[in-house]
Write a structure and sequence with these properties.
The chain is of the alpha+beta class. The chain has a single domain, classed as Alpha-Beta Plaits (2-Layer Sandwich), CATH 3.30.70. The chain has helices at 16-20, 43-55, and strands at 2-7, 25-27, 33-35, 39-41, 61-66. The strands form two sheets. Strands 4-1-5 form a three-stranded antiparallel beta sheet, covered by helices on one side. The chain has a two-stranded antiparallel sheet with strand order 2-3. Bound molecules: iron/sulfur cluster.
Length: 67
């Protein structure tokens, strides 16, 4: 299983994603999220991506099932 990861322009820089999953997201200079990877593979990383997406209050983390 793989998930594509994208940050939409809805990101308001709350920071929950990169606090919760620093292996997948980091802040830019203004605190907005940057995805460290455009896709993840495997149960653990996909679960982390879903956890971050669920925690985002803006619904700004877009996950796309790949394969
Ligand atoms: S939790 Fe959502 S709004 Fe906050 S920084 Fe991450 S993507 Fe942006």
């Amino acid at each position: 299983m793989s998930l594509g990861i994208e940050i939409s322009e809805k990101c308001s820089g709350h920071g929950r994603c990169y606090v919760l999953e620093p292996g997948l997201f980091e802040p830019d200079d203004e605190g907005y999220a940057v995805a460290l990877r455009t896709a993840v593979t495997g149960e653990a990383d996909c679960a982390s991506a879903r956890r971050a997406a669920t925690a985002c209050p803006e619904g700004a983390i877009l996950l796309t099932e790949v394969g």
